[in-house]
Amino acid sequence: MNDPLVALIPVFLVLILYFSSVPIAFALFGSTLFYFLFIDTGTSAILVFQKFVSSTQSFSLLAIPFFIMAGSIMNYSGISEKLMEFADVLTGHMKGGLGHVNVVLSLLMGGVSGSANADAAMEAKILVPEMVKKGYSLEFSSAVTAASSAITPVIPPGINLIIYGIIASVPVNKMFIAGYVPGILMSIVMMITVSIIAHKRDYAPTREKRASAGEILTQARKSIWALLFPFGIIASIRIGMITPSEAGAIAIIYTFIVGKFIYKKLKFSDFVPIFKETVYGTGSVVLIIVAANVFGYYLSWEGIPQALTTTMLGITKNKYVMLLICNVILLVLGMFIEGGAAMVIIAPLLVPLMVKLGVDPLHFGMVVIVNIMLGGITPPFGSMMFTVCGITKCPIDGFVKEAVPFIISLFLVLLMVTYMPTLVTFLPNLIG
């Protein structure tokens, strides 16, 4: 198009529709269809539907329903309980013991469920009532639960790792490996935050003394089937035995066998809610990915990423300054747009720019994901905030006050991940 403002109408239309409570997938698809129907009338709108259908023909997309279902089975199979017991043995002796258990459980859950909202919901139901009984405030318990759930999608097989890999054409297995160090770093910083608050408020530990090596080993044996799962999946992908999609299928079989025949907590009647959760989760995630690919087709058709790259390079060619600008854009968007939606809108625009400046798209992917996880616990659209507060009935204003220290700690991690790319690329490069 000759008029650049006219060409940008679908971008503005996406935002207008989203803020009008239209689901992001329909906003993306509808805006693209509007472009080919009313702006670029020389091109058949059938191309939009062809792109929509062809975007579903991706083998990588199979990983999403498989891992969603595996995570759902885990919640019914007793795996999450075994992980919580192991987390308690490791950290229960510390001041604010249940707060530390909350963080460590999210770290362990990342290798199993990969979903921030699933982790937040599970811990809000199981841990928050127990924390309140032990003297923790409802607001603090809710805040640490939502904040710790931000770790889960960063640890493989996080769904956001898969989504970014597909959108940015980065190998999903590399995204998986790159998530470990940032995820562990988030856990450490968050545990330091819990420790500082716990000492100020004298939150008691759940254990009288530190667990002995024998106690840790005993609990590790009891939880071994839950602990082996994430490491076995990643190791199998790395040595080339299976693809991420095949790993998801194996994850379903594994969690079923462990839940049914080893922990003996999984019942066949549980599969009704499991299938419902899987269909709902898969439908929403995959529809967003496909709509994002269709929207990306419009962006490429108009050359908007290239134009944005040229414009931004006119501001600065320093990649560190540009990373700061991108973080500010994502943080501001995260205050008004749900993190996953922000990623599918902004990633296709920013990735070409960062590649042009010599930033590894793998590194930039972790910057984006950590950033949108920060948005997940901040108002007004933080999805984990609403998930936890909806279950615990915690007032939003009280939650926000208690969440501030955790937001600051996650922001520090974001800066480290942004300006220390080795934290992201070290493991993928080491493993090859």
TrEMBL record:
Keywords for this entry? Cell inner membrane, Cell membrane, Membrane, Transmembrane, Transmembrane helix
The residue ranges of the TRAP C4-dicarboxylate transport system permease DctM subunit domain are 13-422
Transmembrane stretches, start-end: 6-38, 59-79, 99-122, 143-167, 179-199, 224-241, 278-300, 320-350, 362-386, 406-427
The molecular function terms of the Gene Ontology recorded here are: transmembrane transporter activity
Q: How does it sit in the membrane?
A: Multi-pass membrane protein
Provide the protein's localization: Cell inner membrane
- Enumerate the InterPro entries for this protein: DctM, TRAP_DctM
Q: What is its main location?
A: membrane
**Gene Ontology annotations for the cellular component aspect, listed alphabetically:** plasma membrane
Checking PANTHER family in the record gives:
2,3-DIKETO-L-GULONATE TRAP TRANSPORTER LARGE PERMEASE PROTEIN YIAN, SIALIC ACID TRAP TRANSPORTER PERMEASE PROTEIN SIAT-RELATED
Name this protein carries in UniProt: TRAP transporter large permease
Can you name the source organism? Criibacterium bergeronii
